[in-house]
Design brief:
Four Helix Bundle (Hemerythrin (Met), subunit A), 9 helices, 2 domains, about 0% strand, mainly alpha
């Protein structure tokens, strides 16, 4: 269940961050209000997962983030964009704290005792990079879908999210690539099943989403937001596959992959 809470907290962090980086002057408040409810649901799910594990350590961040997400809904409902953005940043910060608390502590402690400084750095960067990729991808899909409700909005905000997606892909590839290189450097032998999962992780969660991001960018040049949104739906699926596979793999390795 803690694997579920880790994934959900990363997603909550990234989605709140991406929404906070989206201009409320160029995107209608309904987008922020409706998807603040998504943040509320995500953090309630993370809290329930932590409660099922009977873990007080992992319980408080999603509870606080859920309360803040509800306040965020209220702020956008009453047309208070400055407060709404501030609360979004707060949700992102609390969700990230929860994800950092929920890291594989045993692996990190083993690395620290062994004098390897790369491991702790990668473990701390891992939820940030993962959340950034998850959040920007699903936020871009949500925003693309929002154009169906308000087709008169300018395309600039969606293009910005696609640029953030591209940057997140690069950062994620660097963090996971460094983890794989460190495993190879230390002579860690991976099983065939692990290599197959690594192949799936990189094919879907890195290469696949990079191709889909480029396709969505090209589609917006037409411009066709509906087709771009369809591509982003597929991107969300590939990112979810990649990040869930990464979480499963990283739980049994000394470095995040």
């Amino acid at each position: 269940m803690l694997l579920l809470s880790q994934f959900v907290l990363r997603l909550s962090f990234g989605l709140a961050l991406a929404m906070g980086l989206t201009s409320p002057q160029r995107v209608t408040s309904g987008f922020f209000r409706n998807h603040s409810y998504v943040l509320l649901g995500l953090n309630v799910l993370a809290a329930l997962a932590a409660w099922a594990e009977r873990s007080q350590l992992y319980l408080w961040p999603p509870i606080i983030a859920a309360v803040l997400a509800y306040l965020c809904c209220v702020a956008w409902l009453y047309q208070m964009p400055k407060l709404g953005v501030l609360v979004l940043w707060s949700v992102a910060a609390i969700s990230l704290i929860g994800a950092l608390i929920d890291l594989p502590i045993d692996a990190r402690t083993r690395l620290e005792r062994g004098g390897d400084m790369l491991g702790p750095v990668l473990w701390r960067l891992d939820p940030m990079a993962s959340g950034q990729l998850l959040g920007t991808t699903i936020a871009a899909m949500f925003l693309g879908h929002w154009y169906l409700n308000t087709p008169t909005m300018e395309i600039g905000p969606l293009r910005r999210l696609l640029r953030l997606m591209a940057e997140a892909i690069v950062v994620r590839a660097v963090v996971c690539g460094a983890g794989l290189a460190a495993l190879s450097f230390h002579g860690v032998e991976l099983s065939t099943a692990q290599w197959l999962m690594i192949g799936l992780r990189w094919a879907a969660g890195i290469t696949g989403v990079a191709i889909l991001t480029w396709m969505a960018w090209q589609t917006l040049k037409i411009p066709n937001t509906q087709s771009a949104t369809g591509i982003l739906y597929v991107a969300v699926i590939t990112v979810f596959i990649g990040e869930l596979t990464s979480l499963l793999l990283s739980g049994g390795t000394a470095y995040p992959v």
